[in-house]
Amino acid sequence: MQFVRRTGHYLRFRLRTLILIVAALAISVSITEFTTRDYRKRRRIEADLHSMGAYYVSFDDSNAPAWVGFIAPVGLDRLGDYESFDNLDFAGAIVTDDTVRNLSNLKRVRVLHFTDCNVTDAQLKMLANIGSVWMLRLNGSPVTDDAIPAIASIRGLESLDVSGTLITSDGVAELEQRRPEIVVRHEP
After folding, report:
1. Which residues pair with 67 in a beta bridge?
2. Which tens digits make up the pLDDT trace of 98-143?
3. FRET pair for 118, CA 20 to 30 Å: which of 2, 91, 96, 156?
4. Alpha helices of the chain — where are they, by DSSP H?
5. d(Cα 14, Cα 24) in Å, to the nearest integer?
6. What burial letters (b/e) apply to 43-61, b meaning 16+ CB within 10 Å?
């Protein structure tokens, strides 16, 4: 009788262990599938942005591209598929009218870097159609006071760096009159 009881107890233990092992395997497979799916999604997005000339892509927690750096942007016509970015960096890049036209289709860019690149006053006028930009960095670019109305029309703009540009103190004063909420950094 004691042997039977021990055997029954032994079988119960093994069945419980088997159930725990199967549950652990099911959880492992689910986690692996989820992370693999995220990994594949990130790699697909990264490859798409690299094909547009991006040299660097990072992602936020929701697997959306957060920071994208461009040196030689080409064919940004699919950029609007992503709708928003935390940081788009064109520092030192050759910016064309097509580049800016495609940027103007975005809904939101938190920080847009045009540092030390060839962005023009006319291109900034095209950029006025963008959904929202919180910070615009134009430092070292050849923009002039003629860009002030276009800059003032950018929705959501709260911070602007025009150090090392051709924008004068009079241009900064005009911008401050039009949009006093914008914090302007200007060092000629």
Report:
1. 58, 87
2. 989 889 889 999 999 999 999 999 999 998 889 999 999 999 999 9
3. 156
4. 2-51, 97-103, 121-127, 148-152, 169-178
5. 15
6. eebbebbeebbbeebebee
